[in-house]
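Below is the data:
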Amino acid sequence: MGHGTVVLFTNRVITALLDLHSKYIRRLTNEERARERDWVVKRAGCPEFAPGIYQYDGSTLPLWQKPGLNGNAYWSRHCNYELNIQIGCIGSNLRITDYSAGCTGSAHDALAFRSTAAYQYPNYIFQGDEFAWTDSAYTVSYRTIPVHKAPANLDPWVRAFDKAVSRLRARSEHCNGLLKGRWQSLRGLRISINRRRDHLAAMRWVSACIVLHNIGVEQQEHDWDMAEPPRPDNNQEQAGGEQNIEQDAGARRRSLVEHYRRFRTGEN
């Protein structure tokens, strides 16, 4: 085998997988959205939680050495050189519907989340009253509902709400664990980042692993039938994110807490 052959073949496989990106990293169909709503209600019990069909969480991808290009920017709170990956998934089967892989390890999850389609194009990801559950590191908005920080979480009903939400939000942790468990390269990526194109190569590697993850999820559901799955209509309006995503910030979460209190106490 000639020098560089393995690298060449690896790049060709990654390119082939990325050609399938739009097929496997896609919006949910109406049937899938309805199924997720049913799953959320069965999981959490509260009917008002049904629109929260997505879970978002950040994860870090360790690098095997300090990058030669802006190396300090990759240093994370885990005391390692890493990439910040944002994953958005659905809870029933852990299929990834949205992600970002370009931020360095020093980036906060709330900042890295701004690179996702959910933030930049919320009308593309969400329909109607849909929203995503997140941890407390994210900013509360109409489309993202994080658990509470102190001192708000000192209230007993807020704590009960956060505990109920954790049954849903934990699925994003499961998704990250499954992704890294399937593709061990994501536990320590051996790509030397010394130039901009090396950083892009690392992003391509992560994207290829996510495509493979979704292939496994979808083919498991379809019993390895490689026929084209149903595709949603992608011609809907894709409005910019910040103005839309910041509307009614906090009000929706307070409403959900109140609905959960009434659900638990049996009030109408």
